[in-house]
Each structure stands twice: as structure tokens, then as C-alpha cells.
Amino acid sequence: MALTRIFPEQLTSSLSQRLASLYYLVGQDPLLLAESRDLIIKTAAAQGFDERLEVTADNSTDWIDLQERCQSRGLFFNKQVISLNLPENLTALLQKNLAELMSVLNEDVLLIVQFAKFSKLLEKSEWHKRAINYEPSIVQVNCQTPTAEQLPRWLANRAKAMGLTIEQDALQLLCYSYENNLLALKQALELLALLHSDKKLTFARVQKVVEQSSTFTPFQWIDAVLEGKEARARRILTGLQAEDVQPVVLLRTLQRELMTLLELSKPAQGLPAIDAPLPAAQLREGFDRLKVWQNRRNFYVLTFQRLTYRKLYRIIQQLADLERTAKLDFGADIWDRLADISVKIAQGK
């Protein structure tokens, strides 16, 4: 008796082999949760589960009614799918109600339980033990948003399933542009598939779709700054201001990039002169170690050519001063000062 742990892209194959009576959807990614739930429900409907109920567990949940519904055995419902969404904090009372619910499940009910994280503590809980007694082969679908390292594999599998071929640099551009936003990534793929009947995704085609997005992202601003494209950086910054992006978000994003620059510029031995260009000899090893996207590496190379340690330290200090100002004086013209820092990095001043 054990959990069968799979990823969402494996769910279709799993369902074709067997429809379990109980599924755990574990994670918080909206796209993966919705698609996994819908696929289970669609498969169940084809096997006679023609009723559906979705319950979000909270203080107002009528657990008695839910138990009676499970025990109805076709008196009022045919076979039914119940989707139960649990809060992040599973109280003792909630777990008691879950245990009682697991005790009344039967073959006319397919239960989908959605929760954020399945810990060792939950694995030892009474409700999970009763769930295992009911369905010895519970299927647990990992619906966590892929990490930066996992995203290329997820995207490659997604593109393949859609019949798309994708160049490596195009894949990396999509991963970078839509990291942590699978819904937007899905929509971008669907748009690209509609635009190109040959189903080939080149870097140029992907870049055009990314550029034509209805909104700018902080990442696009960062790339323009690192690439030395002053005018483009200003244009994106103006767009972000119009979209009411919080300046602190941009400050933190830029700070992370500057810390990456510092980490990449650590000399193998000794310290170069403070006014010497940033040392680029160890960049390739640094890129690999820090897992910098391939399509972004040239941006860092260009930045290294423009900056010295003195200039980099000065910019980091100005950014820290600006963050303090942003927190203390909401009336200060933060956007103009952000633009000035953008120019200094882009021009290497």
C-alpha cells in the first residue's frame, strides 16, 4: 500500500491504465491544479461519474451533509466526483472531519483532494491511513510550479505534446520570460501554434510574441539595462510605471542582478585594481555554476565590458539609498532616479 507519485504530464498515461478512486493534487500552481483536476473529471465522466461537487473546506463546511452525500449510493445521485480543496493549515478538527469522510467513501465516489503540501506528519495522520484503507493505490500528482531548473523539461514536453518543434535558444527565452507563470507560458505557446502552421518555434518568432505581450515585465527591463540599450530600458520603465508596478519590486529585481554580477566577478586569485574592468576570465564557469540562461549570458558579458568594481559598488550604494528613500518618502520621484541608475548601468558610467 503506497502512494503513486507522478507529474501532471504523466497523468494521461496513468488514467489510461487505471482510474483510481482517490487522487491527491499537491501544490499551488493554478494551471497544473486546474488541468489535472479537469483531466481526472473528464476521464471519470467517460466511466459513468456524471455528477460533480466542488467543496472548499472552511469554517462553514457542512461535513455531515458531505458524508451523507457520499453514503447516498445512487439514491439521489449517480456516480459522483467530489473535489475537496483544503486550506494550507490543517487543524485538528479539520483532520478529524477528513478521517470521518474517508470512512464513508464507496465505489460510487471518486474523491480529489487538493492541498498545498504533503508532509511526513500528514502521511502519519489518521485521515490518510483511512484513505489508504479505502484506496491502496492513491495517485499523488505533483502540482508544484517547476523550478528554473525543471522548467525547460516541462516546456519541452509541453511543446512536444502540442506537435511543436522548438529551438534551444527559443525554449530558453520562453522559460526566462514566463518563469513562475505557467498560465502565461501556455497562452504564449498556443498563440505561437496559431501563428505558425509549420509548428516551428524559432528564437525570432518567440521573441516577437514576447515583445508584443500586452504588458512589460521587470525582466525585460533588466535585460535592456544589461544589454546597454538605454532607450529601450527607459521605454520599458515608463511602461512599468504606467502599469502601476511597485518600484520596490524593480529595486529588488535589479539588486539580485547586481549581486549576480558581483558573484560572477569574483577573481580566481587576488583582487584587481578597483578601476579595472570586471574580470571576465572565469565567466563561463560562473554562468554554469549560477545556472544563468544561455540566451542571457551575452548580456552579462556586455555589462562586464562596461563596468569596473568602483562603478559597480557605486551603483549598488545608490540602489540601497534609493530603496531607503522609497520606504520613507512616498512622494520622492523614485521613477526618475531608477531611470538614472538604468542609464549608468547601460552606459557604464
From TrEMBL:
Keyword check for Nucleotidyltransferase: yes
DNA polymerase III subunit delta C-terminal domain: residues covered: 218-344
Domain of life of the source: Bacteria
Gene3D superfamilies: 1.10.8.60, 1.20.272.10, P-loop containing nucleotide triphosphate hydrolases (3.40.50.300)
Keyword annotations from UniProtKB, A to Z: DNA replication, DNA-directed DNA polymerase, Nucleotidyltransferase, Transferase
Record Pfam families: DNA_pol3_delt_C, DNA_pol3_delta
Catalytic activity from the UniProt record: DNA(n) + a 2'-deoxyribonucleoside 5'-triphosphate = DNA(n+1) + diphosphate
Molecular function per GO: DNA-directed DNA polymerase activity
E.C. no: 2.7.7.7
CDD domains: HLD_clamp_pol_III_delta
Boundaries of every DNA polymerase III delta N-terminal domain copy: 23-130
Family of the protein in this entry: Belongs to the DNA polymerase HolA subunit family.
UniProt protein name: DNA polymerase III subunit delta
